[in-house]
Amino acid sequence: MLARELAEEFPVVSLDTDALTAARMMGERRHPGLIVCDDDGRPHTVLPASQVLRFIIPRYVQDDPALARVYDEHKSDQLLTKLSHKTVQELLPKRQDRDELPVVDPDATTLEVAAVMARMHSPVVAVLDNDDQVLGAITISRLFEVLFPARSDD
Amino acid sequence: MLARELAEEFPVVSLDTDALTAARMMGERRHPGLIVCDDDGRPHTVLPASQVLRFIIPRYVQDDPALARVYDEHKSDQLLTKLSHKTVQELLPKRQDRDELPVVDPDATTLEVAAVMARMHSPVVAVLDNDDQVLGAITISRLFEVLFPARSDD
User: Fold this and answer.
1) Do B63 and A117 count as a contact with CB atoms less than 8 A apart?
2) Would you say the ipTM is above 0.90?
3) Do A112 and B24 touch (CB under 8 A)?
4) Model pTM?
5) Among partner residues B26, B57, B151, which is closest to A118 by beta-carbon distance?
6) How far apart are the CA of B18 and the nearest CA of chain A, in angstroms?
7) What angle do CA A84, A86, A89 make, to 5 degrees?
8) Following DSSP, what letter does each residue of A99-150 receive, concatenated?
């Protein structure tokens, strides 16, 4: 099976997508991350959901999560408003910490996709066409469905 | 909302679970990882699906995934048989590279769960009871459903 057949739809946003919209997409579509594209539609990076939390939650609470229990509902809600009027661009960490997006071309074999995921410790690869536009993405669990099918006697 | 209410069922295996069974679980249940427990049921680590691929795929193919295209179907299938008669324990990297499992207690608040995920860059936390048994796990996309609900006018 080739990458073009394995690819599924994956949420894609641009650098100037509203940050709250991006966060809602991950919840609604139950995805742990989004592909972020440049204005020309080429993939720029992955925005992992955990990065959104790193943006919202004060450093000292990240250092000692038990402190979060002293936040009441009002104060928690206030934290979430930090996303208002922000863009995806503003959520991204500085370049060196940014997650590189693993990519393959549509003719990559199953084993090639697996090798890219293994190399980059990545649970997802984007499938790009000849113009570097995102055709979709292959998640590692989809790849495992194909590589390790349920036994027929299951 | 508290961790006990957010927790969902998550695939759990033990160190001596058959490696192929573990790989099939990830495909069938579309999960990018499994919680690995010790014999006493306490969580030991997370087995990310990418680690299974790192075990199977030869180092030189990981270094240059394009080489995978020269593998024919028979040779690809041979790689997958590397999982036969192996246990989950044998797939795990040496301790220092192993993913620590982020955990919370059942009374952790939504914000505390978020802080643990932010701190550990983790898309999942395990919820443990008083005896350190796994009650379930909270994925970051489930957390986002609660933190960033769809607007009522959507």
Assistant:
1) no
2) no
3) no
4) 0.88
5) B57
6) 13
7) 155
8) BPPPEE-TT-BHHHHHHHHHHHT-SEEEEE-TTS-EEEEEEHHHHHHHHSPP
